Each structure stands twice: as C-alpha cells, then as structure tokens.
Amino acid sequence: MPQMNSWIQDFEKVYPNIQVTYNGVGSGAGINNFRQGAYDIGATDVPIPSNLYANVSQAKGGIIEIPDIVGAVGIIYNIPGFNQSKYGPLNLTADVLAKIYLGQIQYWDDPAIQQLNPHFKFPHQPIIVVHRSDASGTTYVFTLWLYKSSSAWRSSGVGYGFTVNWPVDQMGRGLGGKGSPGVTELVKSNAYSIGYVEFQYAIANNITMASVQNPSTGQFLQPTTQTVLSAVSSVNLNSLPSPTSDISNMTDLLLNVNASGAYPIVTFSYLVIQKNYSDFNKAAAIYIFLHWVYTQGMNQSVILTGYLPLPSNVRQYVLNALNQVTYNGQPVYTLLSGVQ
Length: 340
Description:
This protein is of the alpha/beta class and 340 residues long. It has 15 helices and twelve strands. A six-stranded mixed sheet has the order 1-9-2-6-4-5. It has a three-stranded mixed sheet with strand order 3-7-8. A three-stranded mixed sheet has the order 10-11-12. The longest helix is centred in the last third of the chain and has 14 residues, at 280-293. It starts with a helix and ends in a 5-residue tail after the last helix. The mean pLDDT is 91.
C-alpha cells in the first residue's frame, strides 16, 4: 500500500531512531508472515478471515486488528478508441463483471455491455481478463462483492477469498499480475483488457476507471473521493466489534451502501499486531509508530489521493485499542512518557 510507505517516510523524520520497513507482498502473505514472526505488523485489505483467526491469534498469544485507512477497488480497462471525455465512463454492473471473469462474456461487443453503453460501438475483440496472481485482499474484496451482488457469481461456485480459481484462466484468456502494480501494468500494456486494482493505483497511474452500478441504489458511479466518502459517511460506525476478537464481519461493512452517490466497492484496510510483548523496545516502537499514524498520520495533508483518513469515531476506536498493547501484561502507554 503506497500510503504505508508515505507514512513511514514522514514518521522517520520525527522519530529517526525508530526504523520501520514495509514490504508490499499482498494480504495473504502479509498475514502469514506476521503469524510466522517474520513481520511485527501484518497489513491486509481485509480482516483475518474467520477460518484463519484462531490459528493466527494462538500463534501470537492474542492479537489486535485495527482499520488504518479507507480505500476502494477500481475497475480499470484499456479499450482503444473509447474516449471517456467523448463517450462518458464505461458502465458496468456486477453481473456483467461476474460474467466477464467467469468467461461467459468473452467479447467487448457483447449485447450486455453494449446495452449499458449505447453511445459507443464496441469492436468484436476478445476481452483480456486480468486478475491478481498473489494472495490478495483486493481479490478478497472484489470477489466478495461479486458474491454479494451477482447471482451469476454465486451460482458459479467460485466463491471468494484471497485467491480463487478463475474460470477465465482455464479458458486461456486470463492474465495474473503480482500486486496492484502488476495488474495495472498488464492492463496498460494489453489492449482490450480489464482488471481490478486499489483505487489509488489507478489514480497514480492515470488509468481510466469504469463506472460501476451500486446494486442498492441503481446508480453508476466511478470511485472518487466524494463517492467513497458518501459510502463511509452513510454507515453507522459507532458499534464496531472488539479489536481483540474476530472482526471478519467488517469485511463487507462498506460494500453496496444504500446511499445516494455511494460507490459500491469501498473498504477499510487493516493492520494486525500482537497484543502482549516480552521485548519492551519492540512494544514501545510499535506503539509509538501506530499512535503517530492514527494522530498526525491522519491529517489530510499526508493522505495520498485515492485514500481517505478514518472517520474520527473509528480513529478513537483504534486509539483505544492501542491502549491494550502490553509489555509483560502492563499497558505500554502507561510506561511511556510524552506520547500524546
């Protein structure tokens, strides 16, 4: 996640004696490396799924999971001749996207696509379908959204998760890219392709995003700061589950929000940390870094375009959770002085 690299750069200017290293390896690897002890903080686009939670928590002697930023999944495409300024954004529904990734819609001039976009005559070109090749929280969010939103996807048996068996791969028409950067590059370099990425990567690479229908409202919307904010501000976030318990039900909290102007594929990303430490220096460094992220790091001036800072009530929820980080059972925040 580019936002994490930006936070680290700003944090180390204030705390040069604390070094933080970030590896963008995908959510699945991030959680696994955290569980195995290779990482002190796990970063993931979704909370740890229920079927993995007990294993990870037991391995670490108790964990804390906290949202860290608001993002979205954007649908990017490369259709030569399709000029958004002339024809408007490419309109897509969950069912059309599901059938593209299932291999049931194979050409751009398919009637289902043409009907949604009557002002452009699509060429009879095969759709090159791009997806993540690594275990990915972005894939989890995208496939969960398809599962919630499309009867075609639900009936296919593909399901949702960090990885799935893509039917288009079995047909020889799917391409896998590592990380959002890999998917972005494949879409940019392959005419007539489509893919899904973190909203921020599309912004950073100046790639046009489709307008996706929110099944709850019927509106076709592109991900923008305003449409993502509309989704977040319309959800009651005052009663979130305990951060020391399984919070996997938060995965779909911001999907298909029933509010005018709400983009349908919005999500928090999350950080996972150990609850209790026997190494005070490590416990203190983790607490100080995360406390900075959720205070100074939430200033709009340090948030990259394509992300939104956490709402104030969620930020307070996280700061309260950080007060549960302990060193040999003692709250770390009480052992530190001068951290506000």
